């Protein structure tokens, strides 16, 4: 039975409500590994799919999961049912454009205006 407990059934819910999976993963697998799986199995007919692992964010139990952590470290005892399927939400972060990069380096201007009557 220890082998079964070391595995999690995970399905990935996309923003349009469709799913990838479920698929079984060892609890020692990293979040980056999950993202690679999502990237590899992303439906080809869907527009605006992720291009790299950096474009994918996984959310489980309301938390954004960090690439360096393992699935076992990210488990929520309230949400994970033994023998059940864990649903992780997938958010695709659109790639930043050159315009966005340039705007990030500009100082922010104060738009507050005071009127004295």
From TrEMBL:
The lineage of its organism: Eukaryota, Viridiplantae, Streptophyta, Embryophyta, Tracheophyta. InterPro entries: MUB, Ubiquitin-like_dom, Ubiquitin-like_domsf, UBL3-like, UBL3-like_ubiquitin_dom. It is found in: Cell membrane. Residues 8-74 form the Ubiquitin-like domain. May serve as docking site to facilitate the association of other proteins to the plasma membrane. SUPFAM superfamilies: Ubiquitin-like. One of its GO terms (cellular component) is plasma membrane. This is Membrane-anchored ubiquitin-fold protein. It comes from Linum trigynum. It holds the Pfam family Rad60-SLD_2. It is a lipid-anchor. Keywords: Cell membrane, Lipoprotein, Membrane, Methylation, Palmitate, Prenylation.
């Amino acid at each position: 039975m220890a082998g079964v407990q070391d595995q999690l059934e995970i399905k990935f819910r996309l923003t349009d409500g469709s799913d990838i999976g479920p698929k079984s993963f060892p609890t020692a697998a990293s979040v980056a590994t999950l993202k690679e799986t999502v990237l590899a199995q992303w439906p080809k007919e869907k527009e605006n799919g992720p291009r790299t692992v950096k474009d994918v964010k996984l959310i489980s139990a309301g938390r954004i999961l960090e690439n360096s952590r393992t699935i076992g470290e990210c488990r929520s005892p309230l949400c994970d049912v033994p023998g059940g399927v864990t649903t992780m939400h997938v958010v695709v972060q659109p790639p930043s454009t050159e315009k966005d990069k340039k705007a990030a380096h500009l100082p922010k201007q104060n738009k507050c205006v005071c009127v004295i009557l």
